[in-house]
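Late entry, NAP complex.
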Amino acid sequence: MPLLESPAYTDADIPDYPQSTPQPLKIIHVGAGASGLIFAHKAERGLKNFELICYEKNDSIGGTWYENVYPGCACDIPAHTYTLPFEPNPEWSGYYSYSDEIQQYFLKFAKKYGVEKYVKLNTAVESATWDESESIWKVALKRKDGTTFVDSCNVLVNGSGVVNKWKWPTIEGLHDFQGVLAHSAAWDRSIDWAGKTVAVIGTGSSSIQMVPKFAETGKHVSVFMRNQTYIGPQFGSNVSNKEADPDAMEPHAAGKHQYTEKEKQRFRDDPDYHLRYRKAVERSVVSGFKMFYRGSETNIAAKKLMQDSMSQRLGDRDDLKKRFIPEWSPGCRRLTPGEGYLEALCEPNVTCVFSDIVKITPTGLVTADNVERNVDILVCATGFHIGYQPHFRVTGTGGQVMQDQKQPNVYASICVPGFPNYFVVNGPRGNWGQGCVMPSHEVHTEYIVQCCQKMQQDDVKSMVPREDVTTQLNLYMDAWHRKHSVWAEDCRSWYKDNEPNGRVWIWPGSLFHHLKFMKRPRFEHYELTYKDPSNIFAFLGNGLTITEEKFAGTEDMPIPYIRKDEDEIWDIE
Ligand SMILES: Cc1cc2nc3c(=O)[nH]c(=O)nc-3n(C[C@H](O)[C@H](O)[C@H](O)COP(=O)(O)OP(=O)(O)OC[C@H]3O[C@@H](n4cnc5c(N)ncnc54)[C@H](O)[C@@H]3O)c2cc1C
Ligand SMILES: NC(=O)c1ccc[n+]([C@@H]2O[C@H](COP(=O)([O-])OP(=O)(O)OC[C@H]3O[C@@H](n4cnc5c(N)ncnc54)[C@H](OP(=O)(O)O)[C@@H]3O)[C@@H](O)[C@H]2O)c1
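Prediction complete; structure with ligand written out below:
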């Protein structure tokens, strides 16, 4: 292309601000669980000239850890791993932390970094519509008092949680039950099961944590199990903390390990030691990824080890061994360490029921073998409507509605073709298969902040992932799962939206693999629309940089490119 001879731009096309001066950007984040809090913190660190509101339907921040308070509710990833990677907590009371303690950790985090100011509680997002003429999202909201209003933003971040909308099972007569009917994710703390008969439906992670608690004091517990699952070993049961306190529990205690005051003091006083310990625990969690390669040596060995270990823990209960130990590989359904679960199933006051529930009566449950069991308390540990599609209506370009898509069409678990300036934290195909979600939540929020910086600094009005790139990426992911992964095996799990032969909705690779890909956006995978498509270099501005304007005429002017050695990273604001 020849250079134009006549001037294409006038003086008015050359802005008076320094290069890449951040232009105003308004962001709405849906939810104030871990995602909302981390995003607010990262936005404050990484963005200037922005406005952020995190709309939260509940009357508190915390998300999962505010809502889930069923008996025994805890993370089943070691506490020092279920921690924000940049925000260690020497105070964890035990190897696994219970729900209330995790909620306190997030409340403390929010206070420490002052991110509560971004949160608007008791306000649910009902729908979001992309206004093409203005390139903004119009977001419809409803307050708890029933009033509604509309807000708008340039960027919409969906951090409403993958396991947030809990579901009742579809069983005839469920709501005719006259005893106490409860769901694990909406637990009423006043329920007292001591001396009562309890039925628990489900064998997912929630049920696995509750059953030992009911078995301790309940008169009788019936567990309705229509599926098998692995109860895995305790992660990190080889990591000793004896250096901090010779009286610390043996590493193989893992799940039973309560940190002594001396251990916690060492974590507090010696951040380097604490960091080493945290890394050792994390290493024990993440270094086993090879077991998720179907048919690999590690996969076969892990399968045998876990089947043998379950068999041993189930003692002489051949009935349970036959019905409950899976044929498919460990990890196909989410692997849960399940402290005390198998032991509880063998208790004399616990009955495992494998026959399907056909109906619920006012007093109990009837199974396909025509047995009726009357119970005082009916607990549904039946999981969630998985958030593979947002639970609020999202309308993108050309009036397309995200929920009308047969399946989610997501680029790298973070954004969606046809829905500009929309991001989701750890969405479909995110990091849900290995380890803890905190590192990936951190990296996702940083990714979104980088996209916001790009928009603000390069005068980009909107960005949307390319459809062709997204299709190719998803086909690659499908092929990877077909070739390698245990998740594609014949089990039912929410990783496949509960379809045994369904598409696998988790990342095709390890946590490390996920973090490496998500560490920086590949803008070549996006279509960018500039604010002024006929003057896309307007951001070059007045010929100066912010650094020069900030330090003009002072002795403090940094000279970032003159440095001690080549490895020193430098940038110019
Ligand atoms: C019982 C339980 C135990 C778990 N244990 C582990 C574990 O050990 N390790 C692990 O890695 N992960 C675990 N998880 C997954 C857990 O959800 C994540 O670790 C993490 O807490 C997710 O944070 P989030 O902010 O993305 O979502 P959430 O914590 O679900 O927060 C989403 C927030 O969005 C709000 N919201 C939803 N819809 C709307 C709307 N329309 N408008 C406004 N607000 C809305 C919700 O009220 C909620 O506060 C567990 C989940 C459960 C349920
Ligand atoms: N500590 C933790 O880390 C922890 C604890 C709890 C939850 N979580 C997270 O939340 C996710 C969901 O766990 P969850 O246990 O709440 O749910 P889940 O894993 O989806 O398990 C739901 C259970 O309910 C059963 N079920 C559903 N409908 C039924 C019906 N009509 N009749 C009989 N059984 C029925 C399911 O059976 P089928 O298997 O046959 O479908 C399954 O066993 C976990 O995978 C995890 O990511 C984590």
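The domain at 21-59+121-164+387-530 is CATH 3.50.50.60 (FAD/NAD(P)-binding domain). Will revisit in the morning.
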